[in-house]
Design a protein that fits this description.
Elements (H helix, E strand, L loop, with lengths): L7 E4 L1 H4 L5 H13 L2 H4 L3 E3 L24 H11 L3 E7 L15 H11 L3 E5 L9 H13 L6 E5 L17 E3 L8 H10 L12 E3 L20 H14 L3 E3 L8 H7 L2 H7 L8 E6 L5 E7 L5 E7 L6 E6 L12 E6 L5 E6 L1 E6 L3 E9 L2
Parallel strand pairs: 1-2, 1-8, 2-3, 3-4, 4-5, 5-6, 6-7
Antiparallel strand pairs: 9-10, 10-11, 11-16, 12-15, 13-14, 13-16
Helix pairs in contact: 5-6, 7-8, 8-9, 8-10
Length: 375
């Protein structure tokens, strides 16, 4: 099994789009190490679309020599020398989303080439997919090609939920799956994505993770997917949602120039520990007020007999009171069992609770508490 926990890393697309090159990737790899991101758990350095030329040569994809003059093996070796892992991008269609060569019909050739370059992670998109083709077969073909390329390569499928992909991708050997549209740098986008996954999240877990798209923390309305930007508090909520859901944590901002607040959010060790819990179980929904209030309560079983409970207020129409009955997570009411709760954001102890936990939550705020039975 390649992935026991959700992958953590960085991807070029959200900030840089087409404007990528060797220097940018190497500087970012340096920053991941020097600025503490590697120590926090981030390890994949992933190049998205626009790394290659418009035509294949001898059936193989060709890195753009102006952007990557030393080639991909050189770049992979540099990233590996930093103790990091190298990720790349291709597409299940005949072309990528930016109209460069896709892998449709070339799956085994491309998988072998990626392995020779030292690739550790493949993001696999769904643009320009033939209408007469079968998505299951296409993703199965690349999965089989990767499994036989001679190198362990994480298969990160990005087909936006087409063809009910969340129902069959685990069985095809995919490691992470996208069942959402692309994220934009604003609160409406990340809240909509989160809510869209509430009924699908139970399929996620050890070895197969629901990818809710790349993080927008610290972008502040700048970059390739910038549409409005967010406040620091909204970025914190965004990171907390992704952490609680067990989504891959793939940074989309410019790590080289990330501000102190954004860096602090992305390196919050308590939220990362929640995301990276060794049991890797998905959360489950307790309550969802979708009638304008946007009050959502959830729970998640953790390693060591612990659990997490969460109250999210995604609305903007005032404080909302959230309530979690411990009976709903397996602790019977009136059992006399005591629960100690700790704030997942800062590690502060919240006290001892019986039967339930309730709290009023401000708009666009949250509370995540780690619970353990007092024995």
């Amino acid at each position: 099994m390649l992935l026991k926990k959700p992958p953590m890393g960085w991807n070029t697309w959200n900030t840089f789009g087409k404007d990528i090159n060797e220097k940018l990737i190497m500087e970012t790899a340096d920053a991941i190490v020097e600025k503490g991101y590697k120590d926090a758990g981030y390890e994949y350095v992933i190049i998205d679309d626009c790394w290659h030329l418009p035509e294949r040569a001898d059936g193989k994809q060709v890195p753009n020599p102006e952007k990557f003059p030393h080639g991909m093996k050189y770049l992979a070796d540099y990233i590996h020398s930093k103790g990091l892992k190298f990720g790349m991008y291709s597409c299940s269609g005949v072309m990528t989303c930016e109209n460069l060569p896709g892998s449709y019909g070339y799956e085994y050739i491309d998988a072998k080439q990626f392995a020779e370059w030292g690739v550790d992670y493949l993001k696999y998109d769904f643009c320009h997919f033939p209408k007469t083709a079968d998505a299951k077969m296409a993703y199965s073909t690349m999965a089989m090609a990767l499994r036989n390329c001679g190198r362990d390569i994480v298969f990160a499928a990005c087909n936006w939920g087409e063809c009910d992909s969340h129902l069959w991708m685990r069985s095809r050997g995919i490691n992470t799956y996208r069942s959402t549209g692309d994220i934009s740098d604003n609160k409406v986008s990340f809240c909509d994505i989160f809510e869209s996954q509430l009924e699908k999240i139970s399929l996620s877990g050890n070895g197969f993770f629901n990818d809710m798209d790349m993080l927008i923390v610290g972008m502040y309305g700048k970059g390739n997917v910038a549409l409005g930007g967010c406040s620091d508090e909204e970025y914190l909520l965004h990171f907390a949602l992704w952490s609680f859901m067990g989504s891959p944590l793939i940074i989309g901002g410019d790590i080289r120039n990330m501000g102190a607040v954004g860096k602090g959010i992305l390196q919050n060790r308590n939220l990362i520990a929640l995301n990276q819990d060794s049991d890797a179980l998905p959360p489950f929904l307790l309550g969802h007020d979708g009638g304008g209030g946007k009050l959502i309560t959830m729970a998640r079983m953790l390693s060591g007999g612990r659990f997490a409970v969460a109250i999210f207020n995604l609305g903007d129409d005032g404080w909302k009171k959230g309530s979690v009955l411990f009976n709903d997570i397996g602790i019977p009411i009136n059992s006399g069992i005591k629960v100690r709760l700790t704030d997942a954001l800062n590690g502060n102890e919240m006290g001892i609770y019986y039967d339930c936990y309730q709290e009023n939550i401000e708009p666009m705020k949250f509370r995540i508490a780690i619970g353990e039975i007092v024995k």
